Structure formats: structure tokens, C-alpha cells
């Protein structure tokens, strides 16, 4: 084991420039993934807040009997996607408008008749707040004969959904492109190490070192570079995050950083990248030594 | 210890390196493989330490069937062999002692035994004083002794030597050859490829002569036959 580690570390000394290059490439690949990951995480956090307020408002035709509405309310509340339904009568709607729309208080006070319709407000259960579920429930509510119109924030729910997906996807694509470059560079570094050490490797084999013993140092070298790259990328992400949060402030003050499990995933991914690059290179080049 | 039965070896380009080679080497033997370059000496040695596999026929070495050897069995076979080359194959950035220790380290030998074993083989090859010398500080003969010490450190059953004196002057050649004889006296089988016919003629050892990939002469067989006829 000591020999294994020593051999693996030796390559850092033998090819410091290439080693640094491979670590930096891995770090940049993960940094890119990480940045987009941060945006996606924070969008999700923001969306969660907004989504809790996602509701469907069904306006009820004037003159609908109270018992019909009560029955319908119970019916809708039984939908699997629905958290609760509340009925807002015409009078309540007017009261609320007077309280909330201060600018129009006078206009509402002078009204002879109440122009506001009664409505049912439907709140969705968590997990059903994406646009598809909301739209499905809205369509079913629209099916009730006494429902005049159904409104819900379809557009912006959809747009936020899309934004989150696009952010994730862009991050993934760019990150994977960097990852591919990292794998190639690690492969080249390992190949150079193999060529440098060809004599040593052939002697190891002649005296009966096992295949895994010969490969071990190279795989460890790759994994170590991946590990270092992973940590470096986290440091870069954190620096970028702090810089952004502290300089912008205001609405961005509540931005969140990765949770420990996210960081673990990033570092493990780095190790896998390093290991993958060296595995490919070792498989291809060790045979020719 | 070694048995070749109707061994053929051809290379991907179609060249036939060995044609119907059969011979046996028993315990304690010292065998010369002679012949011009390209006669097939090195190919036979490569088959011995499973660097290559025969195209057809069977090669058995120290209980292993090289013809059907799995990849993970190759190291096991090699740990029973000591291999020495004309060009010594020492690591330039390690001392004589470290070169020998390396052979033990890479097969996972216990660390506390390594130093003692290295000292033992260095003494055996007459270089106990040069343990800390780098290869470039040693003469050719001394470098080959280090290589032989490295081959011996695992107590091999068979020592395979490919032109071990090919790069040495006459004096060094005699020294290295005497060392190989001593090793053989200790019970280790020695198979030595050489084209140094003077060396071969001076000694009573068995000689297998190859020409164009075939055995043209084997003292063990031919002399027995000669005795039987007379």
C-alpha cells in the first residue's frame, strides 16, 4: 500500500504541469456544473415559496344555490391533488377587495350592487404544484356547470418550470463537455506517465507483479486528481457564490449554498472522472509496454 | 521442470519463429540455447516466462501450462522464475539494493524481510559493498550481477538468462558465467541463451542448438543416441 501511494504521488512530481492541468480541468468541469447547480437549487428554493401560493380560482355564476356549491367544494377537496378548498362569497370578496385594494376603497364604498362574483379557491398539495397538475385540476373544475371561469397562474408557473429545466440542462451540457475534456486530459497525463515509467512497468511484470498492482498507482493517481479537482471546484463555487451574494445583496441575500450531500456528490463525481480517465488510458496503453 | 511438446510459434505477419520444438529440462540442469540471431532462442525464452503463447503445441514450466495460462496466472508463474537480460534492465534512479528490493516490494513481500533478503543475494553475487551504488556507478559486469541478484531474490526454481554476457568483456563474462554455474550448483535450473560458442565449448553442459526455428542439435538426445548405437 505504501509503495502504491508513493508511486501514485511520484507522478505529481514527475509531471507537475500536466498534473496541475488535469486537476484544473476537472475543477473547471465541476465548477461549471456546480454554478448551474447552484442556480437550479436557488430557483427551486424560490419556486417552492411561490408554489405554495399556487392556487386555482374558480368564479361561480351568480345565483348558484349554496348547497350546490357546498357539494362541489367537498367534491373538489376530495381530488388527490388538492390540499383544501375555500369558498369566498360575494360579500367576502367585496370585503377583501376593500381591505386589500386601498386605492379603490372609495369606489367600492359607493357601489350600489356588489360587482364581484363568489369564488372557490383551491390550493394544491405539495408535489402537484407544477403546471401540468394545476392545469389538469383546473380543467376538471371548469367542467362544473356553475363555474363561470377558472383562473390560475398558468403562464408563470410554466415559465418558472421551464427556466428551472433549462438551467439544469444547460449546466449539465456544459459541465459534461468540460468533463469529457477533463477525462481526455487525464488520459493523456496517465499515458505520459506510463511512457515515462515503461521500463519500470516491464520490470514489475517480469518479476511477477500482478496486473492490479501495476495498474493500482495509475488509478490512484487519477482518483487523487479527481479528488483534488472536486475540492478545488467547491472552493471556486463558494468563492463565486459569496462574491455574487455579497455584491448584489438585496433580493439575493437569501441565496443558499450546497448542502453537505450535494458537495459530497460533486467530490465523488470528480473522483469518478479521474478514475474513468485513468482506467481508459491504462487499459489502452499499458498493453503496449 | 520444463517441457516443450511439438511447439510451433508463428507471428501475425506469417513468419514462423519456431517449428516443432520438443525438449525437456529436468531438475538441476544447466542448458545452453545456442544459434544465430533469429534462430528462435529468444522466442523460446519468451514462451518460458509466458511473454508469448505458442501457436500450437504445449509448453509446461514448473507445473504451469503456458499454452493455457490465464492472465492472472502469469505473475504466479513469473514468481517461480528469475529472468536476466543482456541489457540488465535496472532502474537508473535506484541504487543496487533498491533495484533488488523493488522486485520484492512489487510482489508484496513483507517489509521486515526485504532488507535481509537483499543483503543475502548481494553477498551471493559478490556485491555486498555496492548496495548503495547507482547502476551508472557500476561496471557492466557488476550491473549484470545486480540483475542476477534481483532474479535470485525470490528463490526461483528456474533462472532464465537471455544473452547475459552479450554486453560484457571477457573477464566480466567469465565472472558472470561462474556465478550462473554456482547458482546451478545450488539446485536452480539455468536456461541460458547465448551465441558465445567459446563459452559453450568450455563446459560440459547440455546444449540445444537452434537454426531457423528448429532444434538441429541437442547434446542430451544426440549423445544418448550415440551411446545407444555404440
Describe this structure in words.
The complex is a heterodimer of chains A (289) and B (230). Chain A has helices at residues 2-14, 16-51, 66-77, 90-100, 105-109, 131-142, 154-196, 198-206, 211-248, 260-285, and strands at residues 55-60, 82-88, 119-124, 147-152. Chain A has 289 residues and is α+β, with helices and mostly antiparallel strands. Chain A folds into two domains: 2-48 and 159-288, no CATH class; 55-152, Alpha-Beta Plaits, CATH 3.30.70.3040. Chain A has a four-stranded antiparallel sheet. In chain A, helix 2 (16-51) packs across helix 9, helix 2 (16-51) packs antiparallel against helix 10 and helix 6 (131-142) packs antiparallel against helix 7. Chain A starts with a helix and ends with a helix. Chain B has a domain at 90-155. Chain B contains eight helices and ten strands. In chain B, helix 3 (96-105) packs across helix 4 (111-124). The model of chain B has no long low-confidence stretch (mean pLDDT 92). Classes of the chains: A alpha+beta (289), B alpha/beta (230).
Amino acid at each position: 500500500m505504501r509503495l502504491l501511494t508513493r508511486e501514485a504521488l511520484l507522478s505529481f512530481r514527475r509531471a507537475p504541469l500536466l498534473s496541475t492541468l488535469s486537476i484544473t480541468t476537472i475543477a473547471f468541469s465541476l465548477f461549471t456544473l456546480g454554478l448551474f447547480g447552484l442556480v437550479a437549487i436557488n430557483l427551486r428554493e424560490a419556486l417552492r415559496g411561490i408554489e405554495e401560493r399556487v392556487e386555482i380560482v374558480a368564479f361561480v355564476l351568480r345565483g348558484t344555490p349554496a348547497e350546490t356549491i357546498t357539494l362541489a367544494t367537498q367534491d373538489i377537496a376530495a381530488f388527490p391533488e388538492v390540499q383544501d378548498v375555500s369558498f369566498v362569497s360575494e360579500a367576502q370578496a367585496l370585503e377583501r377587495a376593500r381591505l386589500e385594494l386601498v386605492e379603490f376603497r372609495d369606489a367600492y364604498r359607493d357601489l350600489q350592487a356588489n360587482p364581484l362574483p363568489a369564488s372557490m379557491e383551491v390550493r394544491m398539495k405539495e408535489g402537484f404544484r407544477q403546471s401540468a397538475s394545476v392545469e389538469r385540476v383546473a380543467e376538471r373544475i371548469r367542467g362544473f356547470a356553475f363555474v363561470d371561469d377558472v383562473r390560475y397562474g398558468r403562464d408563470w408557473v410554466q415559465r418558472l418550470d421551464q427556466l428551472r429545466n433549462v438551467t439544469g440542462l444547460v449546466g449539465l451540457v456544459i459541465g459534461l463537455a468540460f468533463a469529457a475534456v477533463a477525462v481526455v486530459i487525464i488520459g493523456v497525463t496517465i499515458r505520459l506517465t506510463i511512457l515515462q515509467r515503461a521500463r519500470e512497468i516491464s520490470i514489475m511484470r517480469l518479476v511477477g507483479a500482478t496486473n492490479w498492482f501495476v495498474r493500482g498507482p495509475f488509478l490512484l493517481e487519477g482518483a487523487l486528481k479527481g479528488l483534488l479537482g472536486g475540492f478545488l471546484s467547491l472552493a471556486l463555487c463558494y468563492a463565486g457564490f459569496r462574491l455574487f451574494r455579497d455584491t448584489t445583496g438585496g433580493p439575493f441575500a437569501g441565496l443558499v449554498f450546497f448542502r453537505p450531500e450535494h458537495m459530497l456528490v460533486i467530490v465523488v463525481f470528480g473522483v469518478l472522472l479521474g478514475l474513468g480517465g485513468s482506467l481508459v488510458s491504462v487499459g489502452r496503453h499499458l498493453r503496449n509496454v | 521442470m520444463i517441457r516443450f511438446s511439438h511447439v510451433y510459434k508463428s507471428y501475425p505477419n506469417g513468419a514462423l519463429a519456431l517449428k516443432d520444438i520438443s525438449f525437456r529440462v529436468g531438475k538441476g540442469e544447466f542448458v545452453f540455447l545456442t544459434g544465430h540471431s533469429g534462430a528462435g532462442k529468444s522466442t523460446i525464452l519468451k514462451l518460458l516466462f509466458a511473454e508469448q503463447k505458442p501457436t500450437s503445441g504445449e509448453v509446461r514450466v514448473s507445473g504451469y501450462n503456458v499454452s493455457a495460462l490465464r492472465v492472472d496466472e502469469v505473475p504466479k508463474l513469473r514468481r517461480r522464475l528469475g529472468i536476466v537480460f543482456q541489457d540488465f534492465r535496472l532502474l537508473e534512479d535506484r541504487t543496487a539494493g533498491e533495484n533488488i528490493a523493488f522486485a520484492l516490494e512489487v510482489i508484496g513481500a513483507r517489509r521486515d524481510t526485504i532488507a535481509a533478503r537483499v543483503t543475502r543475494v548481494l553477498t551471493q553475487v559478490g556485491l555486498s559493498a555496492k548496495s548503495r551504488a547507482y547502476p551508472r556507478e557500476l561496471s557492466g559486469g557488476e550491473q549484470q550481477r545486480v540483475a542476477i541478484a534481483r532474479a535470485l531474490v525470490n528463490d526461483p526454481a528456474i533462472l532464465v538468462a537471455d544473452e547475459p554476457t552479450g554486453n560484457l568483456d571477457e573477464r566480466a563474462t567469465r565472472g558472470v558465467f561462474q556465478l550462473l554455474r554456482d547458482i546451478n550448483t545450488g539446485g536452480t535450473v539455468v536456461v541460458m541463451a547465448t551465441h558465445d560458442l567459446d563459452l559453450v565449448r568450455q563446459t560440459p553442459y547440455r546444449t540445444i542448438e537452434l537454426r531457423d526455428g528448429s532444434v538441429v542439435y541437442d547434446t542430451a538426445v544426440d549423445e544418448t543416441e550415440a551411446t545407444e548405437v555404440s
